[in-house]
Amino acid sequence: MATDRRKTGKHPNSTKRSKKRISRPKTNINAQKAKNKQHEPTGKDVTIRQSDATWRCVYGRARIGAIMTFAHDTGTLQHLVCTLACHKISAITALYLNEVKINFGASPDPRWAVSGTKADGTVDANYLNKVFMALNDGDENQAAQSDLVTQSAASFPGKWTAAHRQRGLAHAYIILIFNNKTFPDGLPDISFEVQGKSDIFDPRDSTYKYTNNAALIMADYLMNTKFGCSVPPARVDMDRLSAAANECDEDVALINGGTEKRYTVDFTFDTDETKQSVLEKMVTGHGGSLTYVNGLWKVWPARYHSPTVTLTDADLRSAIKIKTRASRRDNFNAVRGTYTSPTNKWQVTDFPIVKNNFYQNQDNGERNFEEMKYPVTLSPSACQRLSKIALEEVRQPIEVNATWGLRAFALEAPNVVLLTLARYGWTNKPFKVVETELILDEGNDSPELKVDMQLRETAEAVYDWNSGQETTVDLSPNSDLSSPFSVPPLTGLTLLSGTDQLYVRGDGTVFSRIRVEWDSFTNVFINSNGFVDIQYKKTADSEWNPGTPVIAEVNFTHILDVQDLVLYDVRARARNALSFVGEWATVTDHSVLGKSEPPSDVTSFGASFGSFGIHFTWDNILDLDLDHYELRLSDSTLDWDSAEFVAEVAGVQYTLALKVTDTYYFLIKSMDSSGNYCDNASSVVVAVLRPSAPIIQHTIVGENVVLKWTESIGQFAVADYEIRYGTSFDQSVFITKVKGTTYTLKGAWSGNRRFWIAAHDVAFNTGDSNFRDVTIYPPFAVATFTAQVIDNNVLLRWTPSTGGTLPVDYYNIYKGPQLASAELIGNTAGTFAAYFEIISGDFVYWCVPVDKASNVGQPASLGVHVDEPPDFELFEDVVLDPELALTLNNIRIEFIQGQPVIIPEPPLPGTSSAGLLTGLVGPLTYSA
Q1: 686 with 656: CB under 8 angstroms?
Q2: For residue 57, with 0-12 CB atoms within 10 Å meaning exposed, 13-18 middle and 19 or more buried, which class applies?
Q3: 182 shares a domain with 137
C-alpha cells in the first residue's frame, strides 16, 4: 500500500547527469484509483452461528447481521447473544426478524416488543411481549449483561455468569418467546440497524464521539490498534485532519429542500478484509485522497485548494513533457453506478445517472459511461456529487511531467499550483499535484536539489455542485493561444527623432535617424519566431523603401541616414512564425529633428566644499554630439553673456581653487560638436563662510597655563590658529600661531589676562574669534608665622602659603620695622629659617611668598626679642663636610666684628630646611 520511491541513476530527461532520489515516502490512495477495486456492497446480512467467524466493524450507520455467540432453549423461550461489532457502538436503532421491524415499547420496560412492521408497512400485533432486547455497547470495561446473568442464574445456572463480559465487543441479548403464530418456522433471520463506532477522536474539540464524518472515520481506522492500521497519532497530521473534518461537515443544499453533510462514511466490514481494501472504500466516501508524505498521514477530501505557489519558465530544470488527452478507454462523459440504499432495505441500488451533454458533443455525440460504486455512501445525491467531481476531473486531461527548482519543494499532493508558461498560452493556469519527489542532481559543478512533479490540470468549478445542473463550458481552458491564421494588427506605432536618437559612426561623425516603436505583442505565434516588417519614404515620394525586418519581441528599430527637417512616412506590420501577415499601421508627416537641435540643458548642477576648493558636479547629458561643458562666474543677475569664464570641462565634475569669504553665482551650459550651446544655463549659489569661532578652555599645570579649544568649522581646511591677548582681537598683542588646538605658556602675570583665538583657513580667510579670561592670583600670606629664640639664635617657622593660583617657588625673609625698607636677609623653599643675632634687642622679621611665575604674595611679619648674648670664645675649629649632613642644606660661619656668627645657606630647590643645624660635626662652644 505504501510506496517509498528511492532511486539512483539517470533521469529520463537528462543525458549525462546523475540524480539521486531523496527519501520522501508517500502513499496516495485516491478515489479515482480505487473506483474499480471495490467489492460489491453486501446489503443486508443475517445473524449466523459459526465457530470461526471473523469479527465485524461498523462505522456510521449500517444494517448488519451478527455472530450468535450464545443460544439457550428453555422450551418456550430462546435466549440469544448476538455479537455485533468488535468495538464500542453508539446504539441499535432497529431490530429485524424475518424482515419484520420490531417496534419496542415504553415504560415500564421499553425493551419488550409491542408490535412488528412488515415490509408492506402493515403492523403485526402478534409480537407484543414476544421479543426482548438489551444492549451491551462494547465498552472495554463493561460488566456482563445483567438481564442475562439474572435469567441464567434462575433457569440455566452457570451458562452465563458475571464473568461473561465480552469486553470490547458490542452485543445484544435477545429473548424470543415462541408460539406457532409468531414464529411458525422456528428461529427467524435476525439483523440490526446500528449506529457504529462511538469513540472516534475529533481533534477539533479533543473529544471522542459517534460520527459518520468521512475524514474522522478514516483517521480513526488508521490509528486503531485493534482492527485498524496501528498508526501512532503523532504520525497523523492533526491540523490537516481538523481542516478535512470541517470540509466534510459542510452543509450541501438538496434540490428538494434541506441539507446533508458533504462527505460521510457509513459501512461495515469484517476484520479479515485487507486494510488497503478498507481504506480504498473509505476514500470513495469523500472523493479525495489519503497521502503519506514525510512521515505524516493526511486526509484530503475532494475540494479545490487555493494555490499559493506560481511556477514559471524560470523554475524549470528540465524539458517538459505534456500529455494533452486522456485515452478513449479512460475518457467518459456520463457516470452511473450503485450505492447502498437504506430506503430500499439496505440493498445495492442504482443512483441517478450523472451526464454532461457538453462533453458528449466533444466526444462526437457518443455517450460514454463510467461505472462507479460507492460502498460507504447512503445518499443518492452524495453519489451524484462525487460522480460529478470524477467526471469533471477526467475532462481536465492535460498532464505535465517536469523537474522544477526548489520553489516547488513546498508542494505536495493534492495541492494546486499555478503555471505561467507563455509558449503554451498558460497564464496562472491551475494544476493539481499528483505526485512529487525530491531529487539530488550531481551533474553540475555543485550538487543541486530539484523536485520532480506530475501535475494534472484542474479548476475550482470542478468541485461546484449546482443541484444536478451540468457543465456547459470547459472549466479549465487548455490554452490562451489564439489562432495561428489570424494575425492581429500592429498597435502603438510611434516615430521619434532628435538628440536622443543621434548616432555616431566609427569615424566620430554624428548622423540623424528615426526610432520606430510599437506595442509588445501578446500573440505567442508572433512573439515566438515572428517578425515586424518596416517600410519608409519621404512624404513627398510615392515609392516605399524596405527596412530590415525586426524580431517581434524587440518592439523597436531605427531608420538610418534620414535628412534633418524633412518629412517622412513609416509603416509596419506583424508577420507570425507561419509567415501570415497582419495589416499595415502607418504614421505620416514626421519631421526629423537632428543635429540642428541644441543640446540638452544641464541638470543636477550642484556644489560642495572640499578641504582645498569648491567641487562642482552635474548629470551627464546623453546627446551623442555633446562636446563639452562651460562653467562661468556671474553676479546675482545670472546673466550668461556677462558672466566671467571659469573653465571648459569634458567630464561631469570640476574643482575650483580657493575663494575668500563671499557669495558666488556659478553658471553652466552644455555645448555640442557644432558649437551650439544648450538653451538654458543651470546655476548654483555658493556662499563661502569664514571659519567658526573656537570654544576655549584653560587649565593650570604647575607654573604654566594650558589653553585648549575646539576645532573651527569652515568650508575649507583650517591652516592655523592665531593667539593674542588684550581687550579685543584686533587691538590685542600677538602671541603666536599654532597648527593644533592647544598652547602652553608660563603664567607670568598677576591678575586677569584675556586671550583671543581665531582660525585661518587655507584660503586666508580669518574666522570668528573667541576669548578666554585667565586670572592669576598671587600667593596669600603664610599662616602661623612663629619664632623661637635660643640664646642668640632666632629660629623662624611658618605654615605654607595657600590660596594663590600658581605654586609657591620660595619665601623671601626680610628684617626691618617696615617691609618697604626692610633688608632681604635670605630666602628658602622650605618653611624654616634660622638667624644668629650678635646683639640683643627687638627685631621685626618678614616672610613673603613668591610663586613660580615670580609673583610676590602677601607678607607676614613677626616681632622677636633677643637678649644680649654673653661673651664667647671659640675653642675649636670645626670643618663642616656637606656629605656628612643629614640634609642637602648646609650652614656657614662668618666672623662679624671678630665674633663667629652662624649663617644658614638657602636650601637647594625642592629640598627641606628642616634639621638645618643637625649636620654640624662636633659641638660649637663658646666662653663668656
Answers
A1: no
A2: buried
A3: yes
Going by pLDDT thresholds of 50, 70 and 90, the confidence category of residue 1 is very low
Is the pTM of the predicted complex or chain greater than 0.90? Answer: no
| Domain shared by 137 and 82, yes or no | yes
Q: Are residues 671 and 758 in the same domain?
A: no
Q: Is the pLDDT of residue 238 over 60?
A: yes
pLDDT single digits (tens) 749-796 = 888 889 999 998 887 888 888 999 998 888 898 888 898 888 888 899
Amino acid type, 141 = N
Rg of the chain taking only CA atoms, in angstroms:
58
Residue 878: what pLDDT?
Answer: 57
Question: Going by DSSP bridges, is the β-strand pair 742-746/704-709 parallel, antiparallel, or unpaired?
Answer: antiparallel
Residue 549 lies in a domain: yes
Name, in order, each residue with C-beta under 8 angstroms of 169's C-beta and a sequence gap of 6 or more.
55, 83, 85, 86, 87, 138
The answer to whether the peptide bond before residue 849 is cis (omega within 30 degrees of 0) is: no
Per the CB < 8 A criterion, the answer to whether 845 and 796 are in contact is yes
Rounded distance, CA 679 to CA 676, Å? Answer: 9
Residues 728 and 765 in one domain: yes
Within a domain: 365: no
Please count the other Cβ atoms lying within 10 Å of the Cβ belonging to residue 93: 11
Report the amino acid identity of residue 252. V
642, 672, 688: which is the final residue of a domain? Answer: 688
Whether residues 710 and 801 share a domain: the answer is no
326-337: per-residue pLDDT in tens? 777 788 999 999
Q: What is the pLDDT of residue 912?
A: 44
Report how many domains make up the chain.
Answer: 5
Backbone angles phi, psi at 180, to 5 degrees: -65, -25
Residue 647 makes CB contacts below 8 A (sequence gap 6+) with: 630, 631, 654, 656
Task: State how far the alpha carbon of 698 is from the alpha carbons of 473, 722, 724, in Å.
Answer: 94, 16, 15
Q: What angle do CA 668, 671, 674 make, to 5 degrees?
A: 165
Q: Which residues pair with 77 in a beta bridge?
A: 177
Mean pLDDT to the nearest integer, 250-268: 92
Going by C-alpha positions, the residue among 465, 305, 459, 460 that lies closest to residue 383 is 465
For the record, the C-alpha cell of 770 comes out as 573667541
- Would residue 310 count as lying in a domain? no
Sheet of 823-828: strand order equals: 823-828, 808-815, 841-851, 860-866
Domain assignment present for residue 727? The answer is: yes
* Domain boundary, last residue among 744, 776, 808: 776
Domain that holds residue 739: 696-776
Residue with cell 412488515: 118
CATH of the domain at 741: 2.60.40.10
